[in-house]
Structures are given as C-alpha cells and as structure tokens.
Write a sequence for this structure.
C-alpha cells in the first residue's frame, strides 16, 4: 500500500466492537495492517489502539452493513461445511480413520 494513495481516515475513538470493513484497515503509518477485510473488530484490537495511543486508522473501504456481515458469515459457514465434506471424502478415499 502506498502512502501517496488517498485513504479514508478513521478516528480510533469511533472504532466499535464487532464492526467489519469492506477493505483492509491500516495503522496510521499506512503500511502495517490493523485488520483484514470482512473480519470484525475484537476487544484486543480496541485494547491495542488504546494502549499504543494510535490516533487514527486508514482504509479504502467502508463499514459493512449488518446485512453484508450476515451474508459473509453465511458464506464462511458454507465454506466450512464444504471443507469438512471434502475432508470426509478424502478420508474415505484414502481409508483414513479418526484413529490414524
């Protein structure tokens, strides 16, 4: 990420628990990632920016709506189901059991 590109500035005091952004969020240096896209802000994120006295964050994204967050959660759940099914198929095909 280039510092010369225009990023939206987000005051850290406005960051709330559970908020998700459409694009990665970077620390105030514009280089180091604070939060990846589509992942919620957790308590430890808030603790970190307070402890390190980070005044603002930068992003190209926007705050996702509750509907968008729910859709992403559904996609992640479906992907986890498919992954589990693929593991079962692999185990069956290769004759792997839980005891192996």
């Amino acid at each position: 990420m280039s510092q010369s590109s225009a990023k939206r500035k987000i005051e850290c005091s406005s960051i709330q628990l559970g908020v998700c952004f459409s694009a990665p969020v970077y620390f105030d240096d514009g280089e180091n990632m604070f939060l990846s896209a589509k992942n919620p802000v957790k308590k430890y994120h808030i603790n970190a920016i307070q402890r390190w006295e980070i005044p603002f964050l930068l992003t190209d994204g926007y705050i996702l709506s509750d509907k968008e967050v729910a859709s992403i959660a559904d996609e992640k759940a479906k992907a986890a189901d498919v992954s589990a099914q693929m593991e079962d198929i692999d185990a069956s095909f290769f004759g792997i059991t839980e005891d192996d």
User: Anything to note?
Assistant: The helical segments are 43-51, 66-94. The chain has a mean pLDDT of 85.
